[in-house]
Amino acid sequence: MGGPTGESELCFPHLNSSCRKNSRAPAVSMLIYVILSSMSLLTMVMNLMIIISISHFKKLYSPTNSLLLSLAVSDFIVGFLMVFQIILIDGCWFLGDIMCGVYFVLDHIFTAASIGTMVLISVDRYVAVCYPLHYPIKVTQYRIQVCVFLCWIISVFFHCMLLKNNIQQPGLYNTCMGECVVVIYFFGGIAAVVCSFIAPVTVIVVLYVRIFVVAVSQAHAMRSQVKGAIGQGLVQRVAAKKSEMKAAKALGVVVLVFLMCVCPYFCVTLESGDAVVSASAAAFVMCLFYVNSFLNPLIYAFFYPWFRNCMKCIDVFTYNCGYHHLYNKC
């Protein structure tokens, strides 16, 4: 028999069929753990703040904020699921085959719900900018709730069917003890890429380009109207230019961040013959995929003035509650 492998390199040292750990320097492993743990915590905290703000303050009940609430819920759970990805950083899974399947199913469902909600947000903004007079009639709270419900139901059904074999036979594709692997066959992988990446990206880009064009044309129209009425053409020109740049910046942030976060994962999926997604082998692209849920609150909520006002109210409320608690305790 050959010499045994170093026990420190095995997930389960007492088993010959154990998987090997990924070899990294201790400093590198610690840095990765700290970064991912911080990202997971911040993702949950920021999205939880959005959930509390929209749910608690009745003035924030609106169709657009309902979409932000759905996005925050899905991203909050994705932030929680990052904990399991942290477990897989060393290439070892200690929670069993059933939990491996559950983790991947939930991960696919909630990331798909997040992407689907982003598409709904782009549609909402398209109607608001391009058809402002019809917006209150076309976009109602009831219709938004129905769209959000359908988005979640479709995400659950599609990914349960996509990962049906992995759910029915957990650990079927594992090659060693401590491995967590999900296999999506060729046609299923193509369907997942089309529905979760190509179609949403196409819709988002087309709608935001349209929004940008309309915003620029409105800025030009406003500038031409006020140029003759007010003798401050230069000031109006600067204001219009700022409006155009603001629209361009918003478009660039939304589209580029989304593409940067999700493109690597789906490119890896497309390059493989059968879409074999091993979390231990594709840790980087998976973590980059999760970054989208970390940045969504910054893109979609932190740019809203009402969110900063709600944070101030929550801080004051927390401070007052803490003060009264200490006072009563004394």
Rg over CA atoms, rounded to whole Å, is: 24 Å
CATH fold name: Rhopdopsin 7-helix transmembrane proteins
Number of helices: 10
What is the typical, i.e. mean, pLDDT? 75
CATH superfamily: Rhodopsin 7-helix transmembrane proteins
Identify the strand order in the major beta sheet: 1-2
Number of E-type strands: 2
CATH architecture: Up-down Bundle
N to C succession of SSEs: HHHHHHEHHEHH
Strand content: under 5%
Look at the helices and sheets and give the structural class.
Answer: mainly alpha
Shape: elongated
Distance between the termini: 71 Å
Summarize the biggest pleated sheet: 2 strands, antiparallel
The top level CATH class name = Mainly Alpha
Summary, kept brief:
The chain has ten helices and two strands; from the N terminus they run ααααααβααβαα.
Please render the helix and strand layout as text:
Blueprint: H1 26-56, H2 63-87, H3 96-130, H4 135-138, H5 141-162, H6 164-168, E1 181-184, H7 186-229, H8 233-271, E2 275-278, H9 283-300, H10 305-329
Antiparallel strand pairs: 1-2
Helix pairs in contact: 1-2, 1-9, 2-3, 2-5, 2-9, 3-5, 3-7, 7-8, 8-9
